[in-house]
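Database export, one record per block. Field names are fixed; values are copied verbatim from the stored entry.
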Amino acid sequence: MECKELPMKPKAFISCPDMILAEVFLQLEKLLDLVWGGCNLGQQAVLNNLRDALIWIVGGNEKITVELLKKSKIRFIVYIGEQLSTAYGPGAEEFCKTNRICVLTTGGGREAVALSVIEEMLAHKRRQQSRIMRSFKSPPGARKILQSDKIVVVGAGGIGSLILKLLRDKCGCTNLWYAGGRGSKPELEKEGYRYISSLLDAFRADIVSVHLTYIPGVTEKIIGLDELSNLRRYGLFLNYARAWLVNPDGLLKFLLKRRDARAIFDPFYVEGAELGSLRNMHDPLSEILRAILRRKLNFESRGHTAIYRDEAYLQYGISLLQILSQILQELR
């Protein structure tokens, strides 16, 4: 990742410094006139930093908004991660196209997310087996720990399909299903994964992992109490996708009713921008989310790359430097 320092450096604003490793920062400083700050700066502070920048490096929970773009000289936006669609505010994507602002994404991080999801599944199963051992004073069978569970991935895109593959190849799982999206996929059916058309039926499983794209008015709050209640005894519900795929009121009722089950979400759901925006609007739904935390229910929030975060950030960094090298070639 060695980069040569240039005599004339274009100004760039990094609004997601926590997603960039120190060794990548050192290389960026050779290429760019850097200004950086966290997404908690507030919109006016972000605008002040963007005003004279040509390049905006953005990621995580931040939003690309028309208001910010209109008042800046930005020509290039580099999004760290894969889910660029979730970063656009209303009208921002069209504004970028109309005004010829080049938007690029680093991609990467899929394997880190997939491995983190599987680690959570394994940890959940170990706790469950430990409970059985205490109750019956005999160890579980020698079979692989997840092998007998019915596992459903809701949203079998890049990350979801990789989870299915790793569960089969690394964990010996055979009872693997997928749901959501636009229907069954021939490439997944060929691999032996089976499609469930109904979300209600999809939740009749031991483990459900959600990786759907959030589309307002389409996938918004499509998972509610009815779906969650179908989860099998001692089931695990993982949501490393966006918050509003799940109805918060249904989630709270489910957690109060089903103390045997567990739910794990990305911190974005309970600590990040989505909850923050609700709080700012005094929306009563934010109170529901805080009630879940206050009551210390069987609910946890952990980052979607967990212990594999540094590996994901290294992938992001390598791709970021490659993209910036191409941008600088164009600016010369």
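Remark 1: The radius of gyration is 22 Å.
Remark 2: The chain has a mean pLDDT of 82.
End of record.
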